[in-house]
Design goal:
This protein is an alpha/beta fold. The chain contains 14 helices and 17 strands. Strands 7, 8, 9, 10, 11, 12, 13, 14, 15, 16 and 17 form an 11-stranded mixed β-sheet that branches.
């Protein structure tokens, strides 16, 4: 039986999970792969800390170059994270004609096009199932299972931290800051949580998924990103009364000449299966022309779910090595000469429905003034709700609009904010009735 040697860069949470699976599932992996997957070496700056796993003959070294330059190592697994040293190590490994597996979504979103090019130049595989959605097999689904489909749209919950916080606010009426503290206590949120709660982690994943879905170059910089810091129990309660849940969604839709790519809090009806994805779970709904809607659901983070996704890539590459069929599946789903730049729709050109909440002065004519400004900007109001007791002379006014253009809405809100009719900034939440309109 052929032996395939593996080197792991990084012995933190994910690296430890990968090592555990390679050691503990050795026989199962051999039965399913037809090869011995030998964890030959691990590189990490901390070689003393006990990770609770016996390494046996596996070398633990602080020098990553020992692994990268070892001619006997076939596959390098990068679990370091970040965009600097991890990038350097991956480029070195690819240059040494080693296959690479990574879970590093930030690196892929920002530098993935260069990594894909380098992998092609060296005729090796670059795999990243664990980069999006944890253990959810979304990469394999887009690259292989849905290969005969044009992907029309995707809507996804891709950040367990944000989903947990929104669930906590919805179920318990917690303030955002209290829900965040709870998420941090449970280990769902980092001490510095901006990457998650401001939507950037989700945007990294959407950039990767868009490329796989549409055969486009990875484009992070043009994705519109908003986080969940301003979501309150008041808005979640209003949404519930209207029949909606609020989720941080990654939304991608293909049009004739462009792609919608946006991340923001979104109101979705309870009939949408994503409305019932709670806690730290992730889910992706894909609408395609042959299959119509497909939903993938599972744990989006954690040591073993993420390590499981990494092992799926290792086994795929191992099978390719055994069959002498390297690069059997294109890295981004399409052959490289068919990957093309597709422009992302400017957010100002988006058409959708809107939830608007104003803290209005309790004066005669205020509602008429707000409605008038919206009407002057081509925004039609579907419903108006004024509810609750006055708070320091202010009352909440909630409006649901018909479909309107983002540029019109932003212009109208700027004009309304300059009047003496409202206090503070209006709350704006976009509404998606379905994955496919």
């Amino acid at each position: 039986m052929k032996t395939i040697n593996i080197g792991v860069l990084g012995f933190g949470v994910v690296g430890t999970g990968v090592a555990k699976l390679l050691k503990e599932k050795k026989q199962l992996l051999e039965e399913r792969t037809g090869a011995v997957l030998n964890l030959k070496a691990i590189a990490d700056i901390d070689t003393k800390r006990n990770r609770g796993i016996g390494l046996g003959a596996t070398i633990l070294t602080p020098d990553a170059d020992i692994l990268i330059n070892d001619p006997d190592i076939d596959i390098i697994v990068e679990t370091i994270g970040g965009e600097t040293i991890a990038k350097d190590f991956i480029l070195k490994a690819l240059g040494q004609k080693k296959h690479v597996v990574t879970a590093n979504k930030a690196l892929l979103a920002r530098h993935g096009n260069d990594l894909v090019k380098t992998a092609k130049e060296n005729q090796v595989d670059l795999a990243f199932e664990a980069s999006c959605g944890g253990c959810i097999p979304i990469i394999k689904s887009l690259r292989e299972s849905l290969v005969a489909n044009h992907i029309r749209s995707m809507a996804a919950i891709l950040n367990g931290t944000c989903n947990y916080i929104l669930t906590k606010i919805s179920r318990d009426g917690s303030a955002f800051k209290d829900a965040l503290k709870d998420a941090q206590a449970l280990g769902y949120a980092e001490a510095e949580p901006s990457l998650d709660i401001d939507g950037f982690d989700t945007a990294h994943k959407l950039a990767i998924l868009n490329s796989l879905a549409h055969g486009m170059e990875i484009n992070l910089k043009d994705i519109h990103v908003e986080g969940i810091r301003n979501i309150t129990p008041v808005d979640i309660e209003f949404a519930r009364e209207f029949g909606y849940a609020i989720k941080l969604l990654a939304i991608g839709k293909i049009h004739d000449k462009h792609v919608e790519a946006r991340v923001h809090p979104t109101m979705i009806p309870f009939s949408n299966p994503l409305a019932h994805v709670d806690g730290s779970m992730n889910a992706v709904v894909i609408d395609a022309d042959a299959t119509e809607q497909t939903m993938l659901y599972g744990r989006g983070a954690g040591m073993m779910p993420t390590a499981s996704a990494v092992l799926s890539d290792i086994v795929d590459i191992a099978r390719n090595i055994i069959s002498d069929a390297g690069r059997r599946v294109p890295v981004l789903g399409c052959q490289e000469d068919h990957i093309r730049p597709i422009p992302i729709l400017p957010m100002s050109e988006l058409y959708t429905r809107y939830y608007l909440r104003f803290e209005a002065q309790d004066h005669p004519g205020v509602l008429a003034k707000i409605s008038g400004i919206l009407g002057e900007n081509n925004i039609s109001i579907e419903s108006v709700h004024q509810k609750g007791r006055k708070n320091n002379g202010k009352v909440p006014v909630v409006m649901i609009t018909h479909t309107a253009k983002e540029a019109w809405v932003q212009k109208a809100l700027t004009e309304i904010s300059k009047t003496d009719s409202v206090v503070g900034d209006p709350v704006v939440i976009r509404i998606e009735e379905a994955v496919r309109e």
